[in-house]
Amino acid sequence: MRDLSKADANVLHEQRAQLAARYDAFRSRGLKLDMTRGKPCPEQLDLALGLLDCVRSGEWHGEGDDERNYGGLDGIPEARRLFGEYLGAPQAQVVVGGNASLELMHGIVRDAIVHGVPGAVAPWGRLGRIRFLCPSPGYDRHFFICEYFGIEMVPVAMDEHGPCMDEVEHIVAGDETVKGMWCVPKYSNPTGCVYSDEVVERLAAMRTRAPDFRILWDDAYAVHGLHDRPDRLANILDACARGGHPDRAYVFGSTSKVSFAGGGVAAMAASPANIAEASRRRNTSTIGGDKINQLRHVRFFRDMAGIEAHMRKHAAILRPKFEAVQDVLARELDGRGIATWTRPRGGYFVSLDVPEGCAREVVQLAADAGVKLTPAGATWPCGKDPRDTNIRIAPSFPAVADVRTAMEIVAVCTQLTAIDRRLAAA
Amino acid sequence: MRDLSKADANVLHEQRAQLAARYDAFRSRGLKLDMTRGKPCPEQLDLALGLLDCVRSGEWHGEGDDERNYGGLDGIPEARRLFGEYLGAPQAQVVVGGNASLELMHGIVRDAIVHGVPGAVAPWGRLGRIRFLCPSPGYDRHFFICEYFGIEMVPVAMDEHGPCMDEVEHIVAGDETVKGMWCVPKYSNPTGCVYSDEVVERLAAMRTRAPDFRILWDDAYAVHGLHDRPDRLANILDACARGGHPDRAYVFGSTSKVSFAGGGVAAMAASPANIAEASRRRNTSTIGGDKINQLRHVRFFRDMAGIEAHMRKHAAILRPKFEAVQDVLARELDGRGIATWTRPRGGYFVSLDVPEGCAREVVQLAADAGVKLTPAGATWPCGKDPRDTNIRIAPSFPAVADVRTAMEIVAVCTQLTAIDRRLAAA
After folding, report:
1. What is the pLDDT of residue B107?
2. Residues 151-190, chain A: which have Cβ within 8 Å of B?
């Protein structure tokens, strides 16, 4: 495969003609492929159908009082125990909530804005300006929470070990308006990286100018490895305690991509002080999660071994899709000098970087040929990728053959756009 | 029965001795009766057990796309239709949420504080001071939401037709900081009154100084009549539209006291502008409710006729408990000149007013004899009943015999306290 950056105009024109022909051929097929979001596919959802048979009319008794009635703001005991194992915290430091960790995160930020966090000098909303570090590319819904509450976002670069810690440490040490940081520490959205032990230790130990600095640790893909030997993530709560900042992190997780997306269970773990405060605040906004659905999950999965066995079945479905992405990208783009991409060992995404200033155009071209991608820019705060390079690939939902076709189209669009730029610059 | 207010000291002493003997007898029984909250009893919850068998593993297909996956922020179509009927609004003006209307209410107030409501000059949080009218006695969780967000509460008197409208109209016309009002319009918590058509019309039509004034219409007991001919509540959304204030009201409801408390489904209805804004904001805090549980509810209840038939079975269980409260209060306190109470035709509560300055003591005395009541003051903003008279009676959970015993104890405590006050004043 020829490196396009070294090709002359004749070669470029020739290649462009071939690519345009391929593009037109794809386009004429009237495809409708959706790679916009990290949605489980029906075969993955089928794996959890037994959940629906787990709590029938005569079987609603759990360990607690009456799972059909009020009570249990922080979740039923057996669910708190299971999610404690899942999130790496003792049962007493776990809240099992409703169906989405997003709701728990939004609630924690809301509480901090309105009332402050334990150790805060004031509610964050009373300070003139507050900022969050946002490792980018990152997860758009984290950024939306910041936008909702008027929190300024400071992008921080990511590498294969996580956020660039020199940059992070420098910013938090010097700026007291920096109150928080979003992290998807395992199989990060969208790069798929797993934070290294060193990154976790440094995050936990670093000196912050704000005494009430918080890390929102969204462990969304805790058990979502694609291979037999899943990656290991260091325990942030333990690291923070060791680092002398026991209240620094809130850990979030859910079964949205384990059982049903929307019909799952979400949970949060943190220090005793943080959990006590969160429960006190939550009492004004919720009656607690759906305890019967919590019971279904405990019955269906039983324990961490049950969850892990279940997730191996997910991996068997997802692996060929991720392999298809890698195959096509390698075949089409390797050695062309126009794109780089990640090779995640888990999670839901592949992050593709195209030449500067090209991402929007690639996404648009792909859309015109029937492939819907996550909007370019969505992986950056305020939807603005400053270099317009990043495209998030979400291969979980379509069938393998469709993933392959979609990726071919993405690769063709990437090459077309790159060649056009070079020709225009010549 | 002798009117205590006219009795002389000898009679009072004699009666006190008899009451004290009864009190000691109760106390020696070591009772443990809980009348603190409006909790359904197990027999009511049993009525909905079929819900757990409604969506088994092969039966999860509804009208929508895939109820097991992401999507459906505002609820599945069939649930929106059913709750539209329930709340009195077209399907398009209905959001079906998670398991609690409390969450929907908290979210609406949060949105208003952070971003304002449609028609607002500014986010409410940016104004120095804002206030809500709180018909009192009222529902403590409404008051908690105000406390959470730092909203000042202005108590407004209630009578058997609802809030005193002369007072309400006077305040909202003159004070632009009054931005909202809490209402439990049907079988009000705790008085049990149903807002009259005139009250609804006046609320909808009244001139408010704040252009973005909102009514939070918590129709928690919409189908919770105790008798064959349930009471009718005027449709607030229609009234507001007619009154020229289409965006004035948000209507809330849930099946917490229809199916399972905590495992139910909540919904909200409002004008198209309010619903569009709410959905846009909700997108940052939730992935939508549990669609499978929504499907369960639609399958189990089918339609409003199904809900009404179900609620007649609830009424059959609750009616004897409410009758027991009335029987005992009438026998013990009628004509004694020391207490008044409501005779609700639905809902979950009876409101008891004891002599001024006595409610706390009555609740404490009852607790000492093994009857836990809602803390005195809880029915008023900030937990402060200015005259210390109101006690909320919640007879739904205990068995009929226990309700009777608990009410005898409450009545004895009320008389003891009243006599002691008179003797002390003499």
Report:
1. 98
2. none
| CATH architecture entry for B61-302 | 3-Layer(aba) Sandwich (3.40)
CB contact under 8 A, A281 and B148: yes
A-B contacts (CB, under 8 Å): 169
> In this complex, is the C-beta atom of A101 within 8 Å of any C-beta atom belonging to chain B?
no
> Which residue of B36, B67, B68 to mutate against A (max A Cβ within 10 Å)?
B68
Q: CA of B47: which chain A residue's CA is closest?
A: A57
Per-residue pLDDT tens over the stretch B257-293: 999 999 999 999 999 999 999 999 999 999 999 999 9
CB contact under 8 A, B114 and A72: no
Query: Residue ranges of the alpha helices (H) in B116-235?
Result: 140-149, 165-174, 197-205
Q: Write the pLDDT tens digit of every residue in B291-320.
A: 999 999 999 999 999 999 999 999 999 999
Q: How far is CA B14 from CA A296, B4, B362, B415, in A?
A: 60, 12, 20, 12
- Looking at the predicted structure, is the pLDDT value of residue B68 above 60? yes
Neighboring chain A residues of B72 at a CB cutoff of 8 Å? 262
pLDDT grade for A65, boundaries at 50, 70 and 90:
confident
A47 to chain B: closest CA residue: B57
Looking at domain A4-44+308-425, which of 3.90.780.10, 3.90.1150.10, 3.10.310.30, 2.40.30.10 is its CATH number? 3.90.1150.10
B388: left (phi over 0), alpha (psi -120 to 50) or beta: left
A281: helix, coil or strand?
A: helix
Q: What is the pLDDT averaged over residues B113-136? A: 95
C-beta of residue A207 within 8 angstroms of C-beta of residue A173: yes
- What value does the CA radius of gyration of chain A take, rounded to a whole number of Å? 23
Which chain A residues are within 8 Å of B115, Cβ to Cβ?
148
- B71, B103, B115: residue with CB nearest A286: B103
Peptide bond into B190 cis (omega under 30): yes
Confidence tier at A3 by pLDDT (50, 70, 90): confident
Question: How many Å apart are CA A116 and CA A121, to the nearest integer?
Answer: 8
Torsion from C-alpha of A254, A260, A265, A266, nearest 10 degrees: 30
What's residue B188's pLDDT? 98
Smallest Cα distance from A317 to chain B, Å: 16
Tell me the H-state helices in A189-231.
Answer: 197-205
Span B356-362, average pLDDT:
98
pTM: 0.97
Residue A381 DSSP one-character state? G
Domain locations in chain A as residue ranges: 4-44+308-425, 61-302
pLDDT tens digit string along A127-176? 989 999 999 999 999 999 999 999 999 999 999 999 999 999 999 999 99
Distance from CA of A284 to the nearest CA of B (A): 6
Q: Is B7 on the interface with A (CB under 8 A)?
A: no
Q: Is the pLDDT confidence value at B1 over 70?
A: no
pLDDT of residue A51: 96
**What pLDDT digit, counting tens, does each position of A16-39 carry?**
999 999 999 999 999 999 999 999
Exposed, middle or buried, B274 (CB in 10 Å: 0-12/13-18/19+)? buried
Question: Which pair of structure tokens corresponds to residue B1?
Answer: 């029965």
Predicted-complex ipTM score: 0.96
Which tokens is A413 given? 């669009």
Interchain contact A299–B (C-beta under 8 A): no
Contact B257, B397 (CB under 8 A): no
